Every structure is written in C-alpha cells, then in structure tokens.
Amino acid sequence: MAGLRSVLSGRSVAGQVFVLLLVMVLLLVVAAVVALVLQVQRDSTQEARNRSLAVAETFANAPGTIEALNSPDPTAVLQPRAEAARERSHVDFVVVMNTDGIRYTHPRPDRIGKQFVGTVEPALRGEPVVEEIEGTIGRLVQAVVPVEEPDGTVVGLVSAGITLENVGGATEAQLPLVLGAALAALALATVGAALISRRLLHQTHGLGPHEMTRMYEHHDAVLHAVREGVMILDGDGTLLLANDEAHRLFSLPEDAEGRHVRDQGLDPATTELLSSGRVATDEVLPVGDRLLAVNQRPTDPAGRHRGSVTTVRDTTELRALSGRAEESRERLNMLYDAGVGIGTSLDVARTAQELSDLAVPRFADFVTVDLFESVLAGGQPDAAAALRRTAWAGIADDAPLYPKHHQFRFVESSPQGRSLATGRAVLEPRLEEAPGWQAQDKERSAQIVEYGVHSLITVPLRAGALVLGVVSFWRTRKPEPFDEEELALAEELVARAAVSIDNARRYTREHSMAVTLQRSLLPRTLPEQNALEIAYRYLPAQAGVGGDWFDVLPLSGARVALVVGDVVGHGLHAAATMGRLRTAVHNFSALDLPPGELLALLDELVGRIDQDEAQDEHVAPVIGATCLYAVYDPVSRRCALARAGHPPPALVRPDGQVEFPDVPVGPPLGLGGLPFESAELELPEGSRLVLYTDGLVEDREHDIDVGLERLREALAGAGKSPEETCRAVLESRPPGKAADDIALIVARARALPAGRIAEWPVPSDPAAVGELRAAVVRKLAEWGLQELSFGTELILSELVTNAMRHGAPPIQVRMLYERHLICEVYDSSSTAPHLRYATMTDEGGRGLFLVAQLAERWGTRYLPAGKVIWAEQNLPPDV
What we know:
Layout: H1 2-9, H2 13-60, H3 65-69, H4 74-89, E1 93-97, H5 121-124, E2 129-135, E3 138-148, E4 154-163, H6 164-204, H7 209-225, E5 229-234, E6 239-242, H8 244-250, H9 268-276, E7 280-287, E8 290-298, E9 307-314, H10 316-341, H11 348-359, E10 366-372, H12 373-376, E11 387-394, E12 407-408, H13 415-422, E13 426-428, H14 442-451, E14 455-463, E15 466-475, H15 484-521, E16 532-539, E17 546-554, E18 560-570, H16 572-589, H17 595-614, E19 625-633, E20 638-644, E21 650-652, E22 658-659, E23 665-666, E24 679-682, E25 688-692, H18 704-716, H19 722-731, E26 742-749, E27 757-762, H20 767-783, H21 789-806, E28 811-817, E29 820-827, H22 847-854, E30 857-863, E31 866-874
Helix pairs in contact: 1-2, 1-6, 2-6, 10-11, 10-15, 11-15, 15-16, 16-17, 20-21, 21-22
C-alpha cells in the first residue's frame, strides 16, 4: 500500500510515469469509443441503404409483380405480398405504386391510393433511387426501383425503406457493449501502468528526477574513486567506459574510451581476454610487475545484447599472503591425512610405505624409510644391527638412491647416522655442501647430487625410548631448500607414523608367537593307519592366529578317530585353548569312548577351564568352542559321529553324490546341561568324509546355506582322491582375505578285506581253549605269520581264560591282520581286568602281565553290552 500511495503521489519518477501512462491510455480509449460509435452509425446507415435497395429490387423482379400491376385490382393482389416481404426482410415498408406515384400497398392501409412521398423520376427512367427523406412514417432511408416489362417499359414502381429511428436503435443497442469494452481496456491499462510504475519504483527506490540525477552524479564519483578497475566494452571490443583505477592498472591513454581494446597498448594475454568477452572469474594476469585478478561477465546474461563488464583488482600482496596461508592449510591437511591414512594395517612394511606415499609429492620429491631388521620381525631394535630399506617413494623411478629391500649401515657422519645416534632430526639445506654424508658412499653420493637432489631432512622413528629406524626426505624440483618450518612438519609426520609402526611391530611379534604356538600344537604329520586315506589343509586367518584345529587318532581294532574343532577368537589365548582341547581329546580317545561320551567329557573340561579363568580378571574365558568327533571302523565300514555346535560333515559317495548327513547337533562346549547324541553312518568303500570348520562356509556377506551350497558344488566336481578334493574345495572359495581360520580334512574310506578277518565263538569250556589255539595257528600259517604263533597262542589263551573265569558268556574271539596283528576277546561282562604284579608265592595273577610283555599295546574297549580286551603285536619285518 505504501508503494501504491507513492506511485499515486506523482512526486517520484515512477508516479510521474504512472500518471502519464494513465492520461495517454484514457485519451486513447475515449478516441477509440468515439470513432467506434461513428463507425457503427455509418455502417448502420449503409446497411439500411443496401437492405432497402435489395428488398425493393427483389420485390420488383419477383414473379407475378407485373401481372398484379396489370390486374383490375393490384392492391388486393400486392398488399399481402408486400406485407409478407416487409416482415421477412425486417424493413419498415414495402410500397408498390403505379407510374404516377399512386400507392397500391402500404403498411398503413389508409395511405393506399395516396401519392408516394419521394423521388420517382429517375426510377421512371429505369434508374434505382436511394435517398433519405421525411416520409409519412418519419425520417427514413428508402429506395425506389422500376418494375419493367421485358421490353424495358416501366409499368410500376417499388419502394422499400427503413426509418432512421430503427437505424439509431441498433447503434444505441451496441453502445453499452462498446462502453464496457472501453472501461475494461481502461482498467487493464491502469493495472499495467501500475505494475510498470511499481517495478520502476522498486528499481529507482522511490526517487524523484532530481534525486536520481544526484544519485547518478554520486555513482560517477564513486566509480572513479574505488580501488578496483571497472571497464565496459561493447560486443565489438570497443572500450565504452573505464574508471580511474582501470586507467592506472592498465596504463590506459587519456582517450582510451571509444577506441578498440587492441589499440590500447595492452599485452597479448590481456587483449585476448578483454576482446573475447568470455566469462572469467579471478583469472590472474601478470601486467608489468603486478598480478591482476580479472573478473569478466556479459552485460546481458541472457545473451540478447553483446558486451561485457570487466572488474580488475591488484592482488600482488594478497597473493603472497594467501600463498603462505595456503601452504599452512596444506600442511594441516597433510597432518590430518597422516592421522587417517597411516597405520591402516598392522603390517610394518605397509605402514612405512603409507608414510612414503603420503609425503610424495606433497612434501618431498623422494622419501625413504629404513628400519632395523629386528623391527621387521617384531623384535626390539638393535642399534648395532643393519638396516633395511623398507619403503621407497618418489616422483621418478630412476633416482640413484638405495633401492627397496637393500640392507646397509649408515656411517656416523651421515645425517641418517647422526639422527640414529642422537634421536633428533637433522636438516641439510644444501646437500652438496655437507661433506659428512658423502662418506656413506662417495660414488652414489655424487650421483645423487648430479641427479638434482639438493636438500635433505632425516628424522628418527622414535617410539618412546626406542629408535626403530630413520626416515629421509629428499628434494629435487623445488629450488628452495628445506627450512626450519618444514623440519618441524617432517618431525610431526614421522612421530605419527612411528606410533603406527611400533603398533605393527608389537602385533608382528605377538602374531609370530601365536603362529609358532599354534603350529607347534597342530599335528606335524598324520599317524600311520590303513583305515582312511587322508588329506588336510589348514589356512590361518589374515587378521591373526585363531583356534581352529584337527587331529587324526588311531584307535584299537584298526579304527581311526577324526576330530575337528574351533575355538572362537584369535591370538595367543585362542591358540593356547586350542592346544589344551587337542591334548584332552588325545587323552580321552585313549579310553575308547563313543563320540557322544567323549564330547560330554570335553564339555565338562571346558566348563572347568571357564570356572578357573573366571577368577582371573586378566584372562578371558572360552567364549565358544565347537567340535566334531568321528570314529570309523574299517571292518564294519560304520562311522559314528557326534558334534557340539559344529557345522555338519559332508559325505561324497563313490558315484559323486554329495550329501550332508543329519548328525544331531549339541550345544557348544562349555555350556553343559545337555547330552550329546551320536549318529552312525555306513560308508561305502571309496566314499569321502569331509570335515571342516565354519571359516570354510561362513562369512559376513553370505548366509551359511550359501557356503554349504558352494561346498556341495565343489565336492561334486572334485576328483576322487582326497588331495584333489581339498584343492577343489579351497579353489571354490571367493577371492579375498580369509576372516577366519579354515581347517579341512578329507578322508576316503577303506575296508579291511574279509580274508584278513578271523572270528571264532568260544564255549564256556576250558577244553575249548586248545581248539581255539589250533585254529589260530592255522590262520596265522594261512596269513604267513607263523613267527607270531607262539606269542599269539599265549595272548589268546590268557585273555580267553580270564573271560571264562571273570566274564560272562557269550565269548567271541576276533583276529585282524592289518598294520598290526590284533587279537580281541569279547564277553558280555563289563568287569574290567587290572594288571598287577604277582609275588613269588602267588599262584595266579600273571596272565595280563604276560600279555603286556608279549603285545605292543593292549587295553579294554567297552561296548553297550559287554567289553572287548584287545592286544596288538607288531608284524615281522619281512611281512
């Protein structure tokens, strides 16, 4: 509202423009209305003349008009026709008369027979007449036309007319529409003028003419007073305006305005930029001894008018200040990047290389990192030992510096030697003038100087009181030598890297210890046995040593136990826990327990370990441990399995079909409270049993079902040997570093031939022992083992006699010819025999002692119903 009142006030330029526009629009509207009314009246009169003439001629030439005039009573015939024609043609009258002007027809019947009012002489001569007259019905426009015989004889006249009152009525009917349109046009013009004036008011800020004149005077004064050059050029490159600062900065002549920019004596780069008219933002141009920042924009951003506006400012001093600020900012960014980019891994060499890559070329042209050999292995640095060039980075590959992995010692006079000895950084701003460092290698030193290396900073890698090595920063391209500020930056960079390198060194040491411990706990070789053909793989995790383990344990009766386990976690604790569990399984397997019972004992052991370690706050308990234990009997080809939280085994049948047997899964070891169920499988000869840890089938990106399906596909396409199977399984894994350890065992089942198995039922009669001994001797002779007959007879005699005295029937004897000669005596009693040493006066008690002396091994194996006492003898060397 305030803006509208300002516009209507007329004091501002916008108000004056609004009033002027409104007056002009009002005059145009009034003139248009008057002209339109006059035009309408003229057109209406012309329309009346044309219509009356057309109606008269039409009626005069209508069929029957001549006959009606010649009839005895023309009025009777023509009056109805004339009235009908008048109503249809919307005229005021149609009058038919004779050649004397006496009317035959008229809208008013009392006027029939009277003299026609109007001019008829031209019509009598055959010429139509149109005129405006004062007739009997008022002022009117009428036309008179002749009615002619075919020979041209005029036999009558016809007149048609419209009163001027009706003509004026049409004009008056249109006048409200015309006035309404005029008012609408006036309103629209007023609104348009108000909008234009409001825009002008906004642009001129309500200023009046005198105020605007004064403003432009001030603007001109300011334009020439500012310390920034302003130039305006047209599209042809002609200089239209240049303020005083532009004249000074470019040294323009006094008559520069109005001349082309090429005629101003400017340098080619400046001339090209100004004449091109292109957009430029803070483009720096050297003009004399100045650095000018040029900004250039078109005068019309829409591109409708060519031309440009150029502003120029002197940035010579600002450039120097901003250069130093930019250098400081770059150094801060480098330190930030060092914090996040150095030490991304726990690898000493990689961390050293990250430092070198970060500093080249942002800080130095070449960077070398030299570490003591013991540091690379995770040990303490030895000042008397040699160093190895661990990292090397540069802007070129042909620098004559010691190459990567080169081993050497620095002389005491070299900058690196001084840094190692004092633990402080050394700056050599002019390397060619520093004679001490040339004693390191005179020939190579000369090559380095000749190559262009002219400045050096050496910084020791310190981690507390330890000096791990030295970092050297070499400069070639930048002519200025390193300064004290850059020395401080180098020290800060190396200090940050030293922490990461020391962490990597400590990790390397712990990792090496863990690897050593773990490898010492894993089986170095597999025991000799004939029941299974076995191949295995063990892959440690990249992140650290874990707790995966496996073992192959020969059991009595030619049986073999396979075990695979996994302790959750990595590091020394996981490896040590794995060793304890493996030792426990070794001991428990000697008891010849079923798989479920062995896992129950192992579960109880882990629970006790957790209770003991829970009392020590510095030792973490066993968070989780899984295990799968399987026992294969080559005689029956049966395999008993039980698992505690472990992935299921895979079975590859001889025809290549792969399946995952349904082995009941128990809780992980250490939870306690639930029994472990066993499952029993029959393994066809040549089938492969695959045991593995979860690292083979699980990862963070896929579900275990995906891993199992990938394992199934690998096993289906693998070769038949265990070695080929292991290779195919590991090659099927997706590429990348393993996040967890992987233990894999592939065992192909073998069966003991029936010809190497002998069984005899023994009645509970002492006389049957003799018959048994004879049968055993015959079987040994058949196998070619006569050398073992004496010992075998004694062993079986003692074991069978004990079974008869202390056991219960039925009694069964079995003899197996495998890697050893195995003798087994079964009875249904669960009473275990005990080995004891008989005195000189004892009558008995020497049977088991004799068995122990004659056999390589002996023991007792308990079955669900009874027990088996077994003894193994070594085969003769020539067998």
